[in-house]
Give the backbone structure.
Amino acid sequence: MDGSIIHPGNRAPRQFVYPGPMRLSARLPPSFEPNALSARLSQLRSEGRPVLDLTGSNPTRCGFAYPEADLRAALSAPAVLGYDPDPQGSQIAREAIAAHHGHSLQAGELLLTASTSEGYGLLFKLLGDPGDDVLVPSPSYPLFDWLARLEGLHARPVPSYFHDRWHLDLGALEAAAGPRTRAIVVVNPNNPTGHFLSRAEWSALTDLCARLGLALLVDEVFADYALEPPADRLATALLDPDPPCPVLLLSGLSKVAALPQLKLGWIAVRGPGAAEGLEALAFLADQYLSVSAPVQAAAPTLLALAPGIRQQVQIRLRANLAALDATLTAHPHLSRLPVEGGWSVLLRRPAVDEDGACALRLLERTGVLVHPGSFFDLPGDGHLVLSLLTPEKTFRDGLGRIFPCL
Ligand SMILES: Cc1ncc(COP(=O)(O)O)c(C=O)c1O
């Protein structure tokens, strides 16, 4: 037997040498170094030091009582064994999602995705060419930068301003729009500010988009979590049945049912060109068919279970907000911003040091993790961001430890 043929070690000497490390796309970050806060957190955890985390946004780790038997049953129904892919997503799942939203939303106006993040990827591919940009009123969800950049687009922040409540700066948005701008991306209610668009803002924003030929992306993952909503809030973009610009609404089970692990998101398309947009989105989705058949089959049951889960979340958000308000009464130099909706609260503190340094200091001295406002592009150094999803005792204990240090 000739042992020289197959063994890779017996190859002829290599003639070509690949130059250096693997060449990576310029769309990626130049380094994957964690920031100072994450690095310190990992270090503390690796040393077994306990940390009170006031930033958690993963509902499956926050002590909610999920209807386990019903969830398991939904995910093991006979239908989960079949596979009849529809690039738009199964009719049965889309009908359940349309019914969840109401406002005459039709199954035909929806396309399913494996998450809201994937929805952004599809929409950026749909709307832009490399080098184009989208405008993002800031502060906002920090992932937009990367979601856009990975599709070859730039997410350009346009500061909103706070005056009693948050306001979009419509003049600044108009001034920022250039020849390569394709869309505006708003989060309603916003993460982390909790700002719901007012109805007047909606009408001005959709008019602006129509005038400038832009699409409007509206992320409504937190729309079911109104906490201190102003009377004129836009509860959902679906209240507008016939917007003057293309409106692409994103949502998903990760917040609607507090089930991020099931990986089901969706996009609703309305306004001019909706049918063509959906057809093109279905073409894009068809290249991946990334939404699992089991979660689509289970979607009607999951959405039927969602109100019970959301109710627990609502109770938690309100309890933590009340605990924060009670603690604040003893610390008049600290305050919080109104929480119109969502899962976060902005704590305001005297900006005596840089907010990242403050978060690091709190972690070192008190073992409590909070996020600096600058993680979300909040202006100045006077904001810390806390998650209202935090288990109540952890939240109270964490406040008790950090307040004396602020
Ligand atoms: C505003 C916003 N949009 C989207 C997402 C991501 O949702 P998904 O898990 O569906 O990708 C989050 C997650 O926190 C979010 O805050």
In short: The chain has a mean pLDDT of 96.
